[in-house]
UniProtKB/TrEMBL annotation:
<keyword id="KW-0560">Oxidoreductase</keyword>
<dbReference type="InterPro" id="IPR003099">
    <property type="entry name" value="Prephen_DH"/>
</dbReference>
<dbReference type="GO" id="GO:0006571">
    <property type="term" value="P:tyrosine biosynthetic process"/>
</dbReference>
<dbReference type="InterPro" id="IPR050812">
    <property type="entry name" value="Preph/Arog_dehydrog"/>
</dbReference>
<dbReference type="GO" id="GO:0004665">
    <property type="term" value="F:prephenate dehydrogenase (NADP+) activity"/>
</dbReference>
<protein>
    <recommendedName>
        <fullName>Prephenate/arogenate dehydrogenase domain-containing protein</fullName>
    </recommendedName>
</protein>
<dbReference type="GO" id="GO:0070403">
    <property type="term" value="F:NAD+ binding"/>
</dbReference>
<dbReference type="Pfam" id="PF02153">
    <property type="entry name" value="PDH_N"/>
</dbReference>
<dbReference type="InterPro" id="IPR036291">
    <property type="entry name" value="NAD(P)-bd_dom_sf"/>
</dbReference>
<feature type="domain" description="Prephenate/arogenate dehydrogenase">
    <location>
        <begin position="6"/>
        <end position="245"/>
    </location>
</feature>
<dbReference type="InterPro" id="IPR046826">
    <property type="entry name" value="PDH_N"/>
</dbReference>
<dbReference type="GO" id="GO:0008977">
    <property type="term" value="F:prephenate dehydrogenase (NAD+) activity"/>
</dbReference>
Amino acid sequence: MKNNICTIGVVGYGRFGRLLVDILKKNPKLDVKVFSRHQKSRSGFTSLKKALENDLIIVAVPIRVFEKVIKNCSKKLPKDAIIMDVCSVKKFPIEIMKKYVSRANTIIGSHPLFGPGTFLNLNPKFGELSIALDFVRGERLKYIAVKNLFSKFGFKIIETNAKTHDENIVRSQFTAHIIAHLAHELDVAPNHLDTKSSQIFNSFLDIIQTDKQLLKDMYVYNPYSKVWLQNTKNAFQKITKYLET
């Protein structure tokens, strides 16, 4: 396979999959094919076989079904293709790809550090957004081609590894989602007496868009989440004790 990327197959068309496809199609030189088991009969979608017959295959499915999808896709992957995930946890999906995907393929772990809520509420420029990348194994020139692909869109590339990513993301994204879900349970909402900081906080809640399943997935599949959740409980108890004494 040539090292420049001309064709991309996206497997999965959920909330993030739709956003990803919309972004990729902004480059008219890219041939983007999309497979979704929920959209098989609709125009604009293709078979799984055709979605996998591309230079780069991006698997955009929930992490709880990731192993099942990768196991199925690995049997149909052409030699030399690049396969990449977009999960918000890195250690688990990378281990799954290494387990099932041939050594003839290049494996890249990725985490776009934005989501549909970011675009819906902030309408950002690509230059304001980042994508974390982890070159797992395969041909480095193909990894560089993926870096260049997203750099040309304007995204900032953050090169990392699974351990560093998961340790840091539990402190940021996981914490942000916990706070958002607490606010949702408390029925926090804008009102006419909001301070400026409250307005910013409400904007943050709009961006997060609480998704209990996503929060659960981050907890189950990030190896550092259980300790961090206990740290969160301890911190809350410390604040509560201070207020009540």
